[in-house]
């Protein structure tokens, strides 16, 4: 254990030295670029800063004109308002959050699972009509959601899954972008790797799980983010397929907060708090997976 | 360990059923190190991949041991294969790369550990076991790929140009390491290469292929000294064999080989064989290796009917030898090997002696060997 600690320490030191060396190598153009990019990213951060501060502003600050960026007197009032608000209706906001979490987890897992299972044979197994199949998936990217909402409604209704979680999840589960992205990545995985694994005695399932998937983690991370955002922000399935209020999700509720009800000024605070709640999970998911964005490893074992 | 048998094996690719491997018949002996060699696209990899189970077999049977394996999946054939580009799993450490096949076979942990460590010791990669493949040099990667192949103790090893990504020096070193590994383990091995030097130095026997057909299967010595046809003769050996077309005519001293410029007297043995085949007054092709042409005084004095005079075009010094390219009035230059102590200047008139005992005669159309 002791030796391990020392080793870890040494590694840290080495890492720091590497970093220092990298810093020393920076030349003048790079400095300009770094400063430029830093300014740009600070600018990009502004909406986020605004969103965070907004959620904690008391009502009089919320309605200030011109609006301020930074909150003066931070308060939790908006969040308690949001909770209190819904107690006057039948469904507490916690129910919407709960629904959203369930639906998002199921749908994200479903999208990633079916996406990767669909991309693998399209990429690595030649079968009759494979290209045609892939073409069809690509074409489905072109349709706007409005175009397919009526056929979707018919399908969901005939399946008898209105007002169930499945009714939320199933319409979202096919993610053509994900299939496309994963297939492109899997195309990069050299066939020899799969052949080596076959000769080593791996079944298709093992090859898929232990060789192919680990090599496309950047793509997996990316489509996890895309899938998460699609599912978490989706109000459509609530609007169309859920007549039962208890089955609706947070995005749907957020929409009603400011638009439907008469007294929308008073709800500004609750809406700001809700916006933050809507936003936070996306941020967290992104932070978890963004490292994978950068890591590309599919090629590294092959000369 | 097992014999491997190819029985009239065919491979046809694609819509137009182009034949990539044509009536391939071969028996690989138990424990043999066999090399497939041939120019690019001649079907070496295809044959190997059919044996490995990575390509379907269009016709014929392949046996491993006494079993027809045509319909076996790769994992049921109990073979291992080393690929040209190593094909290491980039996401796994060196240790896990080597252990992969054993883990899939559900061996007990301590046994896996023992086998991996032993293979690593043999290949001297013990210090890299925790690294990822991308953190290794080409040579080290190839060792890992070898390690992955040997831990499983399979029926046969298949190598598809495993050394062609390495630099020349490392290639020579790995060559001898693979051979000593083979000597130690004695597992039947098939090794594919397009490099004739590799083929000649490594193989117990060598299979020369061209356009999907086996041209000759022989020991390196016989392949070099007695190539069955012009293609093999040309492919094996560097610089290649000289080929001179000419007519066979009876002369005063015996059968002679005539060109427009000179005549050479055949040995009694060759003459007899060629007469039997009714080739008198027919055109044949004489093949002679550069080292069987000499400038030695005593040989030149020996037999005037084995001499060719020519003009020296240029010489190449390669250290232990010197190669002289002579203009003898033919389309191609005659290449002769000489001891470096002979030094001729370009443009000089020289006389070279052909060792007619070593001459080979080929049929003009079939390009097959006519003499023994
Ligand atoms: N998947 C394929 N589809 C169609 N034709 C193929 C396929 N693979 C190989 N061929 C053809 O089969 C022939 C033999 O190819 P093969 O790969 O066995 O050659 P090779 O001897 O290994 O050559 P190299 O030394 O370049 O590796 C070639 O003409 C090639 O074009
Ligand atoms: Mg090949």
Automatic annotation (TrEMBL), chain B:
UniProt keywords, alphabetically: ATP-binding, Nucleotide-binding, Transport
Gene3D superfamilies the UniProt entry points to: 2.40.50.100, Nucleic acid-binding proteins, P-loop containing nucleotide triphosphate hydrolases
Name of this chain's protein: ABC transporter ATP-binding protein
CDD domains associated with the record: ABC_MalK_N
Domain ABC transporter span(s) in chain numbering: 4-236
SMART domains: AAA
Signal peptide: none
Pfam (any one): ABC_tran
GO molecular function: ATP binding
């Amino acid at each position: 254990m002791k030796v391990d600690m020392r080793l870890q320490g040494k590694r840290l030191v080495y890492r720091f030295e590497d970093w220092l060396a990298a810093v020393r190598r920076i030349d003048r153009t790079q400095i300009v670029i770094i400063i430029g990019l830093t300014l740009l990213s600070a600018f990009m951060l502004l909406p986020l800063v605004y969103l965070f501060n907004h959620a904690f502003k008391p009502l009089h600050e919320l309605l200030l004109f011109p609006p301020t960026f930074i909150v003066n007197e931070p308060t939790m009032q908006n969040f308690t308002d949001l909770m209190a608000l819904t107690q006057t209706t039948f469904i507490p906001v916690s129910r919407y959050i709960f629904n959203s979490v369930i639906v998002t987890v199921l749908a994200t897992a479903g999208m990633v699972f079916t996406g990767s299972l669909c991309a693998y044979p399209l990429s690595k197994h030649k079968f009759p009509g494979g290209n045609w199949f892939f073409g069809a998936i690509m074409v489905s990217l072109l349709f706007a959601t409005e175009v397919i909402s009526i056929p979707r409604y018919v399908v969901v209704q005939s399946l008898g899954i209105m007002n169930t979680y499945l009714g939320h999840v199933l319409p979202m589960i096919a993610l053509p972008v994900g299939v496309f992205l994963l297939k492109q990545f899997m195309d990069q995985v050299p066939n020899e790797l799969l052949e080596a694994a076959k000769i080593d005695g791996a079944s298709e399932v093992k090859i898929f799980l232990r060789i192919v998937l680990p090599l496309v983690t950047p793509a997996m991370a990316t489509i996890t983010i895309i899938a998460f955002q699609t599912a978490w922000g989706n109000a459509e399935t609530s609007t169309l397929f859920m007549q039962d209020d208890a089955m609706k999700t947070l995005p749907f509720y957020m929409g009603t907060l400011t638009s439907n009800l008469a007294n929308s000024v008073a709800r500004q605070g609750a809406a700001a708090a809700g916006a933050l709640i809507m936003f936070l999970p996306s941020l967290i998911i992104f932070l978890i997976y963004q490292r994978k964005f950068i890591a590309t490893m599919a090629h590294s074992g092959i000369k | 360990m097992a014999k491997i048998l190819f029985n009239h094996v065919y491979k046809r690719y694609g819509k137009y059923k182009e034949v990539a491997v044509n009536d391939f018949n071969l028996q690989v002996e138990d424990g043999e190190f066999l090399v497939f060699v041939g120019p690019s696209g001649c079907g070496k990899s295809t044959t190997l991949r059919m044996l490995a189970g990575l390509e379907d077999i269009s016709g014929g049977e392949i046996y491993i041991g006494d079993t027809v394996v045509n319909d076996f999946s790769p994992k049921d054939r109990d073979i291992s294969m080393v690929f040209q580009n190593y094909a290491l799993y980039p996401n796994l450490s060196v240790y896990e790369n080597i252990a992969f096949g054993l883990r899939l076979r559900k061996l007990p942990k301590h046994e896996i550990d023992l086998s991996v460590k032993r293979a690593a010791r043999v290949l001297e990669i013990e210090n890299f076991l925790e690294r990822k493949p991308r953190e290794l040099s080409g040579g080290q990667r190839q060792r890992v790929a070898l390690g992955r192949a040997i831990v499983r103790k399979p029926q046969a090893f298949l190598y598809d140009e495993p050394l062609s990504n390495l630099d020349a020096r490392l290639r020579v070193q790995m060559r001898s390491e693979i051979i000593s590994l083979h000597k130690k383990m004695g597992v039947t091995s098939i090794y594919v290469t397009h490099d004739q030097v590799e083929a000649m130095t490594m193989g117990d026997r060598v299979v020369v292929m061209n356009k999907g057909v086996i041209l000759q299967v022989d020991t390196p010595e016989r392949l070099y000294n007695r190539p069955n046809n012009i293609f093999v003769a040309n492919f094996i050996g560097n610089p290649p064999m000289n080929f001179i077309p000419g007519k066979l005519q009876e002369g005063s001293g015996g059968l002679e080989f005539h060109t427009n410029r000179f005549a050479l007297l055949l040995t009694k043995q060759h003459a007899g064989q060629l007469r039997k085949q009714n080739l008198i007054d027919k055109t044949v092709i004489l093949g002679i290796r550069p080292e069987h042409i000499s400038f030695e005084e005593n040989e030149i004095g020996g037999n005037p009917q084995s001499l060719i005079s020519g003009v020296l075009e240029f010489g190449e010094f390669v250290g232990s030898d010197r190669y002289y390219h002579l203009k003898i009035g033919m389309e191609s230059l005659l290449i002769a090997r000489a001891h470096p102590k002979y030094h001729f200047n370009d443009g000089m008139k020289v006389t070279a002696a052909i060792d007619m005992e070593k001459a080979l005669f080929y049929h003009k159309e079939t390009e097959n060997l006519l003499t023994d």
